[in-house]
Amino acid sequence: MSARSMHEQLPDQTDRTDDIMDDEISLLDLAIVLARHKKSIILIPLISGIFAFGLTFAIPATFTAETKILPPQQQSSTVALLANQLGALGGMAGTSLGLKNPNDLYVGMLKSRTVSDNLIRQFQLQRVYSKKTLFDTRKKLAKASSVVSGKDGIITVSVEDHDPQRAAFLANAYITELQKLTEVLAVTEASQRRLFYEKQLYQVRQQLSDAEIAMKQTQEKTGLIQLDAQAAALVQSVAALRSQMAMKEVQLNAMRTFATSGNPDYVRVQQEIAGLRSQLSRVETGSVTPSKAPEAGLEYIRKLRDLKYYETLYELLAKQFEMAKLDEAKESSLIQVLDKAIVPEKKSKPKRGLIAVLVVFAAGFGAVLRAFIVEGLSRAKEDDGNAARFAMLRQQLKWK
């Protein structure tokens, strides 16, 4: 190798050697600083950890009780059964829920103000939590309670309290209040259908009562008229057709809340109503017409036809209402408690070991930082050029 090439490589090697030496000197300086302040770096975290560990004994122990439930699931068997009789009418009431996850509804009910207030009154939590207002007591209870719906469909209710027995009682009381609330509110598909048919049944009951009174008045006015077999069959046919058409119209009105006019089921129901209306028109213009019956007999037939119509309609709605009530009773019993809350044997808070370890790490970091700050200030004071600056800093820090 020529002397010139050796001369060109020597500066590069020298620079790399200087960098390595600087790094070694820097690490050595750091080690020297840590060694010089080793007592404070060791003692400060140790004393802080012992003090923090001892201080945790002054914190009241907190116990956590947990209960798990399986809420009612939406059932489709009843809808299929009703579809055999009334098409899609059986499921109209339950369609309006539209929840992506039905469990969210029960989680919301458990977190409701109604449930919270009932628990506050039952366990006198306003006195237990030492709160002056119900608002603050609800906030405290919400902070101490947790309601979570898992991916497996199970809802977990956990309650924290300083009294382990009260924590277990509160967790179980949440489920009891949920069961009471589901008996009042229509939250399931069967409950929605029961409420829907209950309203319809109430209206038809009033109309049936009015038809019975009108029929009685007509009999008193015209006297008892005995219809022949053909007229009686005609009246019965008209009543049946009108009741079927009324049920289809109720179904169509319910479908308007979620289906467009182009929906195949919607179009089919419209066509069925049109067919029933045409059939009813042919029957009504049949053997009993104003030209073929005396005025008194015609009035009697009309009142009798109305009475039979409301009787048939009431009978159909009553059957569906009873079916919905049975399904509702079956669904309400499906709130199953998988794990009932028991009195916890061990505290959940405070976690003394974890607190002590965290304090040790924090104090150790602070001690190391303090060591470098003290070392830096000490070196800065030894520099003659910084003496004037430190004097000015002390002067500025004095209170005037």
Overall residue-averaged pLDDT value: 74
Tell the overall outline: elongated
Relative helix content: over 70%
Radius of gyration: 42 Å
Core attributes:
about 400 residues, alpha+beta, 15 helices, elongated
Please explain how this structure is put together.
By secondary structure, the protein is α+β, with helices and mostly antiparallel strands. It is built from 15 helices and four strands. It has helices at residues 3-36, 38-55, 77-86, 92-95, 102-110, 113-123, 125-128, 134-144, 164-184, 189-222, 229-255, 264-284, 295-332, 352-382, 384-397; strands spanning 63-70, 145-149, 155-161, 336-339. The protein has a four-stranded antiparallel sheet with strand order 2-3-1-4. The protein starts with a helix and ends with a helix.
Describe, in short, the structure shown.
With 400 residues, the chain is α+β, with helices and mostly antiparallel strands. Among the domains are: 21-58 and 361-397, no CATH class; 220-322.
What topology emerges from the helices and strands here?
Blueprint: H1 3-36, H2 38-55, E1 63-70, H3 77-86, H4 92-95, H5 102-110, H6 113-123, H7 125-128, H8 134-144, E2 145-149, E3 155-161, H9 164-184, H10 189-222, H11 229-255, H12 264-284, H13 295-332, E4 336-339, H14 352-382, H15 384-397
Antiparallel strand pairs: 1-3, 1-4, 2-3
Helix pairs in contact: 2-14, 6-8, 6-9, 10-13, 11-12, 11-13
